[in-house]
Amino acid sequence: MMQQDLDKKDKKEQTFKDKIVINFYDIASVLASAIVTIMLLFTFVFRVVGVVGTSMVPTLNDNDWLMVSAYDNNPSYGQVVIITQPNWFDEPIVKRIIATENQKVDIDFSTGKVSVDGKVLDEPYINNETINSEGVEFPVTVPEGCVFVMGDNRQGSTDSRSEKIGFIDERYIMGVVKYKLFSADEMTGKLHFNSPKEWKVR
Predict the structure, then answer these.
(1) For 180, which DSSP code?
(2) In angstroms, rounded to a whole number, what is the distance separating the alpha carbons of residues 141 and 118?
(3) Which residues contact 124 (CB under 8 A, 6 or more apart)?
(4) Phi first, then psi: what are they for 138, rounded to 5°?
(5) Is residue 72 packed enough to be buried (19+ CB in 10 Å), middle (13-18) or exposed (0-12)?
(6) How many Å separate Cα 22 from the centre of its chain?
(7) Contact of 142 with 100, CB cutoff 8 Å
(8) pLDDT digits (tens, 9 = 90+) for 79-119
């Protein structure tokens, strides 16, 4: 007997078994709706991705698991992004946006200072100074529709300083990293769920 047939019964006529069936259908309907909603959210709004490597230390570490917003489509300075643009490594990468289209980037490798449009950046997020030249000659101007990215671990990152990565076409930015949900224990390698105060990626 279908749920609608049971619903038509007077409540006084419904047996205990009928009520169980009705409750089962109600719960199944709620669960199905929840699953569809979650699938839509993680397809069009959020994605969960894992970090491989140490190019974003100390902000992100190897084996961190991140929640990425696919909805934020206005690249800006400071955002940590997942990039799917084909590259020398033949894999997606995670980097920080340093400059956007038409901005001029200059790096003084003797001092490690990075300038955008003539202003030296305040970079509290970096692990070490930008003293490694990766082959690109500076200053450079970011083409329209592109961004210039670098890893926070400047001496351990291959990024827009190198022709292996180069400028990033905005269309290849899969999303902006919003939260760091899981991290791996440095000693055991086991994943642990981060406390909410550790979630936000800056």
Answers:
(1) E
(2) 12
(3) none
(4) -110, 155
(5) middle
(6) 42
(7) yes
(8) 999 999 999 999 999 999 999 999 999 999 999 999 999 99
Q: Identify the sign of the CA torsion 89, 93, 99, 100.
A: positive
Task: Give one DSSP letter per residue of 64-113, joined into a string.
Answer: -EEEEESS-----TT-EEEE-S--TT-S-EEEEEEEETT-EEEEETTTTE
Token reading at 52: 């491989």
List CB contacts of 118: < 8 A, sequence separation 6 or more: 104, 106
CB atoms within 10 A of CB 190: 9
pLDDT of 144-168, one tens digit each?
A: 999 999 999 999 999 999 999 999 9
Q: Which amino acid is at 101?
A: E
Q: Strand 80-83 relative to strand 173-184: parallel, antiparallel, unpaired?
A: antiparallel
Closest CA to 178 of 199, 149, 152, 194: 199
Contacts of 56 (CB under 8 A, 6+ apart): 80, 94, 95, 96, 151, 152, 153, 157
**H helices within the chain, ranges in order?**
3-8, 16-40
Has residue 176 got a pLDDT over 80? Answer: yes
| Residue 21 CB partners (closer than 8 Å, separation 6+) | 1, 3, 6
Question: Nearest to residue 180, comparing CAs of 59, 76, 72?
Answer: 59
